[in-house]
Amino acid sequence: IKIIVIGKWRLGVGKSCLLLQFTDKRFQPVHDLTIGVEFGARMITIDGKQIKLQIWDTAGQESFRSITRSYYRGAAGALLVYDITRRDTFNHLTTWLEDARQHSNSNMVIMLIGNKSDLESRREVKKEEGEAFAREHGLIFMETSAKTASNVEEAFINTAKEIYEKIQEGVFDINNEANGIKIGPQHAATNATLAGSQGGQQAGGGCC
Amino acid sequence: VLPLRRRAGAPSGSPPPISGARIQKLCDRVASSTLLDDRRDAVRALKSLSKKYRLEVGIQAMEHLIHVLQTDRSDSEIIGYALDTLYNIISNDLEEEEQEENVPKQADDLGSQFTEIFIKQQENVTLLLTLVEEFDFHVRWPGVKLLTSLLKQQGPQVQQIILVSPMGVSRLMDLLADSREVIRNDGVLLLQQLTKSNAAIQKIVAFENAFERLLDIITEEGNSDGGIVVEDCLLLLQNLLKNNNSNQNFFKEGSYIQRMKPWFEVGDDNCGWSAQKVTNLHLMLQLVRVLVSPTNPPGATSSCQKAMFHCGLLQQLCTILMATGVPADILTETINTVSEVIRGCQINQDYFASVNAPSNPPRPAIVVLLMSMVNERQPFVLRCAVLYCFQCFLYKNQKGQGEIVSTLLPSTIDATGNSVSAGQLLCGGLFSTDSLSNWCAAVALAHALQENAPLKEQLLRVQLATSIGNPPVSLLQQCTNILSQGSKVQTRVGLLMLLCTWLSNCSIAVTHFLHNPANIPFLTGQIAENLGEEEQLVQGLCALLLGISIYYNDNSLENYRKEKLKQLIEKRIGRENFIEKLGFISKHELYSRAAQKPQPSFSSPDHMMFDHEFTKLVKELEGVISKAIYKSSEEDKKEEEVKKTLEQHDNIVTHYKKVIREQDQELEELKQQINTLKSQNEQLQTTVTQQVSQIQQHKDQYNLLKVQLGKDNQHHNSHGETFQMNGIQLEEVSKLKEELEEWKNKHELLQGQLREKESVIEKLKSSQLEMGTTEQSSQAGKSGGSELNNELQKELETLRSQIQLQSTEISKLQSENQKLQLLNAAADPVLGDCGATTAKNSEVEGRLLQEVKELKNEVKALSEEKASLKQHLDSSNSTVAILQDQKSKLQQEVAESKKEQDDLLVLLADQDQKLSALKNKLKELGEPVEDEDDIESGDQADEDEDGEEEEQD
Ligand SMILES: Nc1nc2c(ncn2[C@@H]2O[C@H](COP(=O)(O)OP(=O)(O)OP(=O)(O)O)[C@@H](O)[C@H]2O)c(=O)[nH]1
Ligand SMILES: [Mg+2]
């Protein structure tokens, strides 16, 4: 499954950190500005099936926007990330969401992430506001901390689960790789129900 | 159909002049004619002129052609002609072909100038992108070719335009899905240009599943047996992967490495390889190397290396290595590839060590390869590749190094001489007459010693039999002998590099070296002399070796102590002169080339002078040796002293660290004990509560019993109604009996519980004792717990004996009861014939009365016992309270010991400060000081080293 991580620029909302925490279980305190796009991957298990998440972490800087747009089309899911300690990152969500919706496959699962939940004292965006925004736009919502790893697993795995359910409902055409989903050949025998397991689901990353 | 770029047959020679007017007329028709047919004919005419009159058509028609592209999109034919014409104007392909035929070059780079004009309007490129999406062959194909040409002429600019146009890159990816081979193949060529040195585009192309598509094409075309399409796909893959870590990671994570394995299943009939196949295989091998290049991040390379082992790719490559009939350049590249797949990766190195050549008897692949390395008749590049392979096998592989060195040691040499060992081949190479073999063998042997001090010592044991009749000489001795005999520069450089590596960081080897009285005069002689330019390198290396002999000297030989050697330098050579000579090494023109990357590659055999690892050693030692030479012996002494104090401080720190660690452990243990104590306490408390309630029950029952007994007495007092009374008595007795029975059960229960409690207390006691001991070991030691326990134990003891008393009384009671019963039974028949036996009856009655009285007394005693039992339970309750108190005391003590630890930490920080102050002092003195951090976190240091390595590469 391809998932992308998207979100707003300047000072960084923590997209790369989320990915690093998810793939390497590490936190990187210094901001290492992402240039263009970086790739990361991890295996997870859903319903006893091995699923490989391929995640593209995109740059949040406006100047890379045209590049990051190229990644919407092929992604099955996106994590839309803002920083709960900076209201402007939250205010920009609508623009990013429109952009994502416009360039992506209509079935793309979008999860809204309020990151840096460890910085409660500097919070500028209430959790309720995030929830309300998600409800309004039909997104899944979660607050995470790439620093303490709180909810990081859940964010990626829940996105993958949502995609997985959509696959089982037949919403995604799994034979079209442009949807960001690829059935792995290696476990075909183990999941007769799905005509093969999710050996190669991919996650595309987005940026906020 | 071949891609156009490879089509030959362009017109040559200068074309006859043409009137500009004719072209202008055509342009006017294109611009102003209202009839589509007319415009189409005009464009076609322009197309036919565009090859011969490229400049003229370009200048006059470009604008009109672009206009056609914008306005006549509905007619694919005219669009096709326009695109073709533009292609002819812009592309230099035809010109290049002509150049190959030695036709002098036309106007300087018309193509790129026209391209500049075309892309000045970005919309032109965007327009072209939409045309390429058109399915019609007449539009799509020339569109692809034109775009490819634009990219070739002005790559970066066109890339940028495509990158910012929405989905630009993604749309071009769709070309690979075109079922028409021509378009698909030219699409590959287009993508090749598009991805050239642009990481952002490379990533998008990879994201759009390029790996999958390209690998599919390669498979469909028959892997290495496929045609030029396979070559083009491989070149594109190389573009996508080379120096692009993100894509390499994606390639690996996407399990595409596994798909490379079949590429190398080349079968056994290796005769008659086509040129295309050789090219394809070459590119395939290079692609493997891109993934495991020593210049990649270490983590990335090592995960790819492992994947290559696990999917069998390495094994497949080793098969090619050992196969016969493989063309020499493929074999060489395969060796280089295997080298990088195993470099620094233990499992792969272990596997490689186990590979055997399919000869009879089977020989290890390493031995077979080394044979080629020291064989003069083998091609130079092949010998370099083997050396590289051997170096990669030994890189960070202590096990492999040990195995190689052990083949040289006296104890393991195969006396039968049946099989050649690696060690024998290396020695043979070291002392053969071929200087290239000398150099390679010396460097190979140096790699077996790299960063492995124990092996450096081991190698000192190696003895060589020179000629019959002469005693054997040591390997070290033989090396210095050859050195002093003045052989070729290459030989001497190789041997000196070996000696420098051998002696560095190994005082025993230095001592062995100095032990030979000829060595130091030889070195000073070499350095002191004024020799020609070609000898400069040897002089530098001699200076380095002398420097190492000083720097790693442990002063164990009186005549060659550090100061003596330094005095010698001053006297015979002069410090300045010595430093200058030492500098010859890193100033050598071939030095920096070797420092760049691990692979030995030399433009000619004469240039084979420096080894990559050796350049690292030089970098490391050049500075410290210079410093060591300038240092006075006084400074040396001071330094030694500072070193000693530093060591002392280190010891203190280590000691405190140990103490803290121990205390930490104790703390942890204490915490655990408190937890157990807590839970035991809880258990105890519940037992006590249970017991109290049971005692209450017992008391109640006793009261009841008392009341009933009182009643009983009343009955006894009323005489004359013996019958009735007897009846009642009988009833009462059986009730009594029942109750007694109940009592007995209860007592048993009580006893059981008491026993339980006792054991709990016992446990508590022992754990407390344990705690006492640990605390004693950590600090003063605490009493109290055991005292308390003793008290508890005593109380328990009394409790127990009382219970025993109770139980004996109960049994007494029981037996009395039984007696009573018996009497009652005896009374029955008497009562049967009543008249005759009244006297007897009264006697019985009296006795019974007495019995009951006794019984009453017993019960009273019993109830007293009960009360005391209760008391004891109460006291045990308070014991528990005391215990709890004790526990909190313990907790406090734990807190105190934590505090103490904090104090220790402060002390440590103090100590640290002092240390760093000392270090600073040391630094001021000019002594390199290892940071404590470096010592502590060896891993980190390793990583740093890797980083450096990268930079060098
Ligand atoms: N306290 C806290 N800091 C975080 C968290 N996540 C990220 N950061 C910090 O925020 C900064 C930016 O993180 P990045 O992950 O590099 O941000 P980014 O979104 O990838 O930024 P761009 O690549 O420029 O778009 C870094 O200094 C991180 O250490 C978090 O959950 N808690
Ligand atoms: Mg980032």
Automatic annotation (TrEMBL), chain A:
State the NCBIfam families in the record: small_GTP
- Family that this chain belongs to: Belongs to the small GTPase superfamily. Rab family.
Q: From which domain of life does this come? A: Eukaryota
| UniProt xrefs under InterPro entries | P-loop_NTPase, Rab_GTPases_membrane_traffic, Small_GTP-bd, Small_GTPase
Its main localization is: cytoplasm
Compartments where found: Cytoplasmic vesicle, Secretory vesicle, Acrosome; Endoplasmic reticulum membrane; Golgi apparatus membrane
User: What SUPFAM superfamilies does the record point to?
Assistant: P-loop containing nucleoside triphosphate hydrolases
Q: Which organism is it from?
A: Nothoprocta perdicaria (Chilean tinamou)
Any idea which UniProt keywords this protein has? ER-Golgi transport, Golgi apparatus, GTP-binding, Lipoprotein, Membrane, Nucleotide-binding, Prenylation, Protein transport, Transport
Any one annotated GO CC term:
Golgi membrane
Protein's UniProt name:
RAB2A, member RAS onco family
What membrane topology is given? Lipid-anchor
Q: Which Pfam families match?
A: Ras
Share an example GO biological-process annotation for this protein. vesicle-mediated transport
What GO MF annotations does this protein's record show?
Answer: GTP binding; GTPase activity
TrEMBL record, chain B:
Q: What is its main location?
A: cytoplasm
Q: Which residue numbers delimit the Vesicle tethering protein Uso1/P115-like head domain?
A: 348-629
Q: Locations of Acidic residues compositional bias? A: 927-953
Q: Could you state one GO biological process linked to this protein?
A: endoplasmic reticulum to Golgi vesicle-mediated transport
- Extract the ranges annotated as region (Disordered): 1-21, 766-788, 919-953
Q: In UniProt terms, what function does this protein have? A: General vesicular transport factor required for intercisternal transport in the Golgi stack; it is required for transcytotic fusion and/or subsequent binding of the vesicles to the target membrane. May well act as a vesicular anchor by interacting with the target membrane and holding the vesicular and target membranes in proximity.
Which family does the entry's similarity section mention?
Belongs to the VDP/USO1/EDE1 family.
What is the protein name given in its UniProt record?
Answer: General vesicular transport factor p115
What is the recorded membrane topology of this protein? Peripheral membrane protein
Q: Does the keyword Membrane apply?
A: yes
Question: Is Ribonucleoprotein there in the keyword field?
Answer: no
Start and stop residues of the ARM repeats: 60-93
Q: What do the Gene Ontology cellular component annotations say?
A: cytosol; endoplasmic reticulum; ER to Golgi transport vesicle membrane; Golgi membrane; Golgi stack
The record's annotation in InterPro entries points to: ARM-like (IPR011989), ARM-type_fold (IPR016024), Armadillo (IPR000225), P115_Arm_rpt (IPR041209), Vesicle_P115 (IPR024095), Vesicle_Uso1_P115_head (IPR006953)
Identify the keywords attached in UniProt to this record, alphabetized.
Answer: Acetylation, Coiled coil, Cytoplasm, ER-Golgi transport, Golgi apparatus, Membrane, Phosphoprotein, Protein transport, Repeat, Transport
Q: Where in the cell is it found?
A: Cytoplasm, Cytosol; Golgi apparatus membrane
Q: What is the lineage of its organism?
A: Eukaryota, Metazoa, Chordata, Craniata, Vertebrata
Which PROSITE patterns does UniProt cross-reference here? ARM_REPEAT
Q: Which SUPFAM superfamilies match?
A: ARM repeat (SSF48371)
Q: Which PANTHER family match?
A: GENERAL VESICULAR TRANSPORT FACTOR P115
Positions the record marks as coiled coil are 653-701
Q: State a single Pfam family of this protein.
A: Arm_vescicular
